[in-house]
Design a protein that fits this description.
The complex is a heterodimer of chains A (about 260) and B (about 425).
Chain A lengths: L2 E4 L2 E3 L7 E2 L4 E2 L5 E3 L1 H17 L4 E7 L5 H9 L3 E6 L8 H15 L3 E5 L10 H9 L3 E11 L2 E7 L4 E7 L2 E5 L11 H7 L4 E4 L12 H4 L25 H11 L4
Parallel strand pairs in A: 1-6, 1-8, 6-7, 7-13, 8-12, 9-12
Antiparallel strand pairs in A: 2-5, 3-4, 9-10, 10-11
Chain B lengths: L5 H18 L3 H6 L5 H10 L2 H17 L24 H14 L3 H21 L2 H12 L5 E4 L16 E5 L2 E12 L6 E9 L11 E7 L5 E3 L13 E12 L16 H36 L1 E2 L2 E2 L4 H29 L6 H26 L10 H9 L8 H13 L2
Parallel strand pairs in B: 1-4, 2-4
Antiparallel strand pairs in B: 2-3, 3-7, 4-5, 6-7, 8-9
Classes of the chains: A alpha/beta (about 260), B alpha+beta (about 425).
Chain lengths: ~260, ~425
């Protein structure tokens, strides 16, 4: 079972992000880390490869400047190798041009299964995975909370608002996994020390057979016209309890339709 | 200049995350609920593969020893990984010290319990034991399947541990009969394996102070061995400390470390002194963890605590406290980094150097933590704000692994030697 897991490297959410006033997009020139929401896909990929008794996890990522810090974390967790599409031409990519680059890179790994997060923590479009599936001509299943491999197909429990659907899908396929469905392992010390020795194949846009006009800001159909700061959060209502505060709490819950 | 490498920073982040999600929520139980730390230690060892690394390094070492290769120059001083390597990035030392620093930010007691078990108990057996003894006791300690204690201190001989030792080992045919009391023994109440020091009483009338010190390896549950309940202490509650009582404990030569009474083979006094260096470097790393955390918490508090409608960080007396904490952090970090650089160069600290490092770091940690309590005011006195725990824990750094006063004598002896 060879699994590709797409890993997005993002600015550390723990430090305040900065916006580029020229492009109205997030600045990505500092150290990047693995998007936490991708750690679930990495964990699930590793578990599926282990359960299958063979195969490996290959990471696929994209960066404009050869950044690998986030990939090293996933390699330390146990992924075998990584493909990094790195090209300044990728700057300003929207979801579709990202999907174009990723799908070309994924096809080089010839995987049985492609895992992606439902959405990234910095962009939140949630559209890239299905675009990748479409470009690869593969079926996709979204919001997986459990994946079981059954020969040449997979059974997926797909999270819904009411519960979950059971979906059977032939392989290869693209599956997005929700956060919290598996407990991502800590990279162990040996894994961390070995991560640097693991191969990271760095490819440019032209290595993938794409034209620079198809990716980055020139290939994007999306443009950000304006960014504005979010309104400051309003202070909450203070209730002084003179024996009637519980009524206020009940009214508040009723207003939210919680009771 | 030494800086943490990319891998070392990854280890630091991974351990910090483990501390936050696995240890921080259990802090109250570890501190006040008498929760022994051993399940947490085993989870830590399994999570980061410390047990597997211990097993691998043990296997390699025993294979080499069986082939009679020369391993005399190697030390098993590193609590987690074994011997320091010459060259490289000081990786072995850093891999040991980074978890110590990160754990000490929240729970220094866990470091003490771990360090004594693997650094002192396993370290002594792996350094001076026979191959059979290493296989019988060493491996299980390196993997944390078993917990070890290192028993040298007695009720009447703390700083004078070797000279003033009253525990005795009497020959009886091919066996020895052990008697004595030990106190302040980390892991004593729960230890599965105990490295026990005693004076050889051969009936020759030699002055007890000058008698040979022999080292024995004992198992929990042996006839005549009693392990006390944990003491109530000022701090370091997550590290169980207790007493051991030995009454006519009969042991064969197989439990005599190195299976020799010959002190020149490195057992007894030398074995104890070797451990002093390892212990003292470890305490410096613990001090760094406490200082870094107290400073972080203090800066955060100084920015957010308002008095007279201003953050208290605007007041110069608060700024002075923060500045002094930063100076201490830089100094102790430099000492820890120097130790790593020396390991990188294949050098070990001398006893005097290790003592100087420990003396300064322990005092700095204690002062910084007490100043953090002061900076937090009334809140600092409350356990919720954590600095009072770190202050109580840090105080022991000036007492165990050799008191401040003993460190001074070791430094002075080296300076004044002819």
């Amino acid at each position: 079972m060879n699994v590709v897991v797409c890993v997005k490297q993002i600015p550390d959410p723990a430090t305040p992000g900065e916006m580029d006033s020229q492009t109205n997009t997030l600045k990505r020139d500092g150290k990047l880390i693995m998007d936490d929401s991708d750690s679930y896909g990495v964990e699930m990929g590793l578990q599926l490869a282990e359960q299958a008794g063979g195969g490996e996890v290959t990471l696929v990522s994209m960066a404009q400047d050869g950044e690998t810090s986030g990939l090293r974390t996933a390699l330390a967790m146990g992924a075998a190798k990584a493909i990094l599409v790195s090209d300044p031409a990728l700057k300003g990519s929207d979801a579709l041009s990202t999907a174009k680059a990723l799908s070309k890179a994924i096809s080089r790994a010839n995987p049985d299964l492609i895992l992606m997060a439902t959405e990234s923590t910095d962009g939140y479009t949630g559209t890239t995975p299905v675009q990748v599936a479409e470009l690869l001509g593969l079926p996709s299943v979204t919001f997986a909370k459990k994946i079981t491999v059954d020969g040449s197909s997979i059974k997926v429990e797909r999270q819904t608002e009411a519960g979950y659907d059971e979906v059977t899908c032939p392989l290869p396929a693209v599956v997005t996994v929700t956060a919290g469905v598996v407990e991502p392992r800590y990279p162990n010390f040996k894994g961390i020390m070995d991560a640097k020795k693991k191969p990271v194949e760095e490819l440019t846009v032209s290595d993938l057979g794409l034209d620079v006009s198809e990716v980055g800001s020139s290939g994007s159909r999306q443009e950000v016209f304006e960014i504005v700061a979010a309104d400051a959060r309003q202070a909450g209502e203070k209730v002084v309890d003179e024996g009637e505060a519980h009524q206020k709490v009940i009214e508040f819950f009723e207003q939210l339709k919680l009771i | 200049m030494f800086e943490w490498s990319e891998e070392q920073l990854m280890i630091k982040e991974a351990v910090a995350k483990f501390v936050e999600s696995e240890i921080q929520p259990k802090r109250d139980e570890l501190e006040h609920g008498d929760l022994p730390p051993y399940d947490v230690i085993r989870t830590l060892a399994r999570t980061f593969g410390i047990d597997a690394l211990g097993r691998e390094s043990f296997k390699r070492r025993i294979e080499r020893e069986k082939k009679k290769e020369d391993v005399a120059g190697e030390s098993e001083g590193d609590p987690f990984l074994g011997s320091p390597k010459e060259g490289g990035d000081g990786g072995a030392a850093a891999m040991t010290l980074i978890p110590i620093i990160e754990l000490s930010k929240v729970c220094p007691g866990i470091v003490t319990a771990m360090g004594v078990s693997v650094g002192l108990a396993a370290g002594t057996i792996m350094s001076k034991g026979t191959i059979a003894q290493k296989e019988r006791w060493g491996l299980d300690l390196l993997t944390f399947d078993k917990i070890g204690a290192w028993a040298i201190t007695e009720p009447n001989s703390g700083s004078d541990a070797l000279g003033g030792m009253n525990s005795t080992a009497k020959r009886d045919g091919d066996e020895y009969i052990l008697n004595g009391n030990k106190t302040f023994i980390t892991n004593g109440p729960y230890a599965d394996t105990i490295v026990f020091y005693a004076k050889l009483d051969d009936g020759s009338g030699t002055n007890p102070r000058n008698r040979k010190v022999l080292t024995f390896i004992l198992d929990k549950g042996m006839e005549g061995l009693v392990q006390s309940k944990p003491f109530r202490k000022m701090g370091l509650h997550s590290s169980p400390t207790g007493e051991l009582f030995l009454s006519d404990v009969r042991v064969g030569k197989d439990r005599l470390l190195g299976e020799t009474e010959d002190e020149t083979g490195g057992t007894g006094r030398d074995s104890a002194k070797d451990n002093f260096v390892t212990e003292r470097a470890g305490v410096a790393a613990m001090s760094l963890g406490v200082i870094e955390e107290c400073l972080r918490l203090s800066v955060e508090y100084a920015k957010s605590r308002l008095l007279w409608e201003k953050p208290i960080g605007d007041f110069q007396l608060i700024q002075l406290k923060l500045a002094k904490m930063e100076v201490a952090r830089l100094n102790v970090q430099n000492l820890v980094f120097r130790h790593i650089e020396m390991q990188k160069a294949g050098r070990r600290l001398t006893l005097a150097e290790a003592s100087a490092m420990k003396l300064y770091s322990a005092q700095a940690a204690s002062e910084v933590a007490m100043e953090a309590v002061q900076l937090f005011g009334g809140n600092g006195y409350m356990s919720e704000y954590r600095v009072e725990q770190l202050a109580r824990d840090a105080k022991v750094f000036q007492i165990y692994a050799g008191t401040d006063e003993i460190q001074v004598t070791h430094i002075a002896r080296d300076l004044l030697k002819e």
